[in-house]
Specification:
The complex is a heterodimer of chains A (416) and B (152). With 416 residues, chain A is an alpha/beta fold. Chain A contains 13 helices and 17 strands. In chain A, the strands form five sheets. A seven-stranded mixed sheet of chain A has the order 2-8-7-6-5-3-4, sandwiched between helices. In chain A, helix 3 packs parallel to helix 4. Chain A is globular. The longest helix of chain B is centred in the C-terminal third of the chain and has 20 residues. The chains are: A alpha/beta (416), B alpha+beta (152). At the A-B interface, helix 10, strand 12 and strand 13 of A face strand 1, strand 2, strand 3, helix 2 and helix 5 of B.
């Protein structure tokens, strides 16, 4: 069966060059902490990878700490805050955007339970944080502002420079998670001005289980894992050297693939979006104009996300949904709720995410397979999109296509 | 994003080739009983249409808005209920439906609960129409954020 992988935002295929270099790295078995030749060889491999990852974001090697992934890096930054607060600082407030990854939101909740004040920064309909709100929330007690550069579900890009400028004026530190944006758009830590930056290897064709945290020289950081001097005493435990090597190679390749994102990949994404908007009625495009070029999040009225996903899967098309039907009800994505999406539409959201290997033929295949799937699910649905009712199209970011769902639920029988 | 759908082959079969499903408008299926459960804000909704003669379910059609296991559960339930006496059909349990599907992941079990509530509502609709006392529907859906918001 034909396979069309459109879930790069979940994880990208590991590049061959990455696998080859990792295979070679396995033979360098020495402990990077050992002083002998084998140890030094392993250490040299980590140093090289560190320079490669630093190079991708314009950082200095000494500012890169390898972690087990984006989640650990995010946890590490927030964990630092409470350690410091206990020690000396009067600052005990943290501002996070409402559409952060759970590794930020759940850590923020943890800090909230410990007594810290967490402000959830609201976003507008396109997923952009409300800068006026940020200005209001910032004060002399703000320790950290954490806003992701690009959202993982809908792709919205934030003006991190603006956030940094506002936060630094108030003496607050700034963290940004670039797990999704890395390799897709140019990122320069100096231009962004952030103090911390989270990165993940497997979103750019590296292996799973490795990520990195950029920490601006001089910015505070507390170790989350104790018991060793590795990573400049910031991350104990023998280094995951082979995966780190893979991350380094993927980082090097990422800069090579980056130009494709703003050309072919954007074109294919736009082609898919335009087809859906023009040929399938009652859809809402959740990805705004100012977003990553490889993400397209669309809601289909009257069809449920998991059903769409599995039906596409049966045709070899692999995507994600924001709908998670479990334990009593379908939980809608917190991101779609934060941008004010219709909860009924949010259940039918699908994220297509493209990558360097995506071809136009693959997009054409999706275009051929998608409409009958939506049609079949809608025909068997209790919910009927109001095709001919005069629903008012909302102003929108993409081609005037963001329709109000116009759905009507059928009424249940009343018993007298 | 979403995960865990360790569905059985039977679930897959009923999802991709649902039995007794109504693709057309409900007016195109002659029925004398109608029942609904769930609501679309919570994410799952089922509609059951029955053609009953002499208390026997002669024919059945349904519509479902929901995930794969919701669609498969309603499909399987319709197969089980077809040809049954309404009083027996009323007693079909979600566990029976799930068993016949070769099991459902625990977090998907509620989907089969919703289908039988729609069937029970339809049977009660018929009992009311034939001037008989409705049977008691025991709500089995676990407490959740959508509880109490059922379509009524």
């Amino acid at each position: 069966m034909k396979k069309v992988y459109l879930d790069y935002a979940a994880s990208a295929p590991v590049r061959n060059e990455v696998i080859w270099e990792m295979q070679r790295a396995f033979y360098d078995y020495g402990n990077p902490s050992s002083l002998h030749a084998s140890g030094r060889k392993a250490k040299a491999r980590i140093d090289k990878a560190r320079a490669e990852v630093a190079g991708l974001i314009g950082a200095d090697s000494t500012e890169i700490t390898f972690t087990s992934g984006g989640t650990e890096a995010n946890n590490m930054v927030l964990n630092t805050m409470w350690g410091l607060i206990y020690r000396k600082s009067q600052r005990n407030e943290i501002i996070v955007s409402a559409i952060e990854h759970p590794s930020i939101l759940e850590m923020a909740k943890f800090l909230e339970n410990l007594g810290f004040t967490i402000h959830y920064l609201p976003v507008d309909k396109s997923g952009r944080v409300k800068y006026a709100e940020l200005e209001k929330l910032l004060n002399s007690k703000t320790f950290l502002v954490s806003v992701m550069l690009a959202n993982n579900e809908i792709g919205t890009l934030q003006d991190v420079v603006k956030i940094t400028t506002l936060a630094h004026k108030n003496g607050a530190l700034v963290h940004t998670d670039v797990s999704q944006a890395l390799g897709k758009i140019p990122i320069d830590v100096e231009k962004l001005g952030v103090d911390y930056m989270t990165m993940s290897a497997h979103k750019i064709g590296g292996p799973k289980g490795v990520g990195a945290l950029y920490v601006r020289s001089g910015a505070p950081l507390t170790s989350l894992i104790l018991g060793g001097h590795q990573e400049d005493k910031l991350r104990a435990g023998t280094e995951n050297m082979v995966s780190i090597v893979g991350f380094g190679v993927a980082a090097t390749l990422a800069s090579r693939y980056m130009p494709k994102y703003n050309k072919e990949i954007r074109q294919y994404r736009d082609k898919l979006r335009d087809f859906i908007v023009n040929n399938i009625d009652n859809v809402a495009v959740n990805t705004p104009a100012n977003a990553l070029p490889n993400i397209l999040n669309v809601s289909f009225a009257a069809a449920e996300g998991e059903s769409i996903l599995l039906a596409l899967d049966s045709k070899g098309i692999e995507v994600s949904t924001g709908s998670a039907c479990a334990s009593g009800n379908i939980r809608s994505s917190h991101v779609l709720m934060a941008i004010g999406a219709d909860p009924e539409l949010a259940h039918g959201s699908i994220r297509f995410s493209l990558g360097p290997d995506t071809t136009e033929a693959e997009i054409d295949y999706v275009i051929a397979k998608l409409p009958p799937i939506i049609e079949k699910l809608r025909k068997m649905s209790t919910v009927q999109p109001a095709r001919h009712s005069g629903h008012v199209p909302e102003s929108n970011e993409l081609h005037g296509s963001r329709n109000k769902s116009g759905m009507t639920a059928q009424k249940a029988t009343k018993h007298e | 994003m979403s995960n865990t759908w360790a569905y059985s082959d039977t679930v897959k079969e009923h999802f991709f080739n649902p039995k007794n499903v109504l693709y057309e408008d409900e007016s195109l299926f002659a029925h004398n009983a109608r029942g609904m459960s769930g609501n679309i804000i919570c994410g799952d909704q089922m509609l059951m249409l029955l053609q009953i003669e002499n208390d026997i379910i002669e024919d059945i059609r349904w519509k479902t808005y929901g995930c794969a296991s919701a669609i498969a559960s309603t499909s399987m339930l319709s197969e089980v209920a077809k040809g049954m006496n309404i009083f027996d059909a009323f007693k079909i349990t979600p566990a029976e439906v799930a068993d016949k599907l070769g099991g459902l992941p625990p977090n998907k079990f509620h989907c089969s609960v919703m289908g039988d509530e729609a069937l029970q509502a339809a049977i009660n609709d018929y009992l009311a129409k034939t001037n008989r006392k409705p049977l008691k529907i025991v709500k089995k859906v676990a407490k959740n954020s959508c509880a109490g918001k059922d379509t009524k």
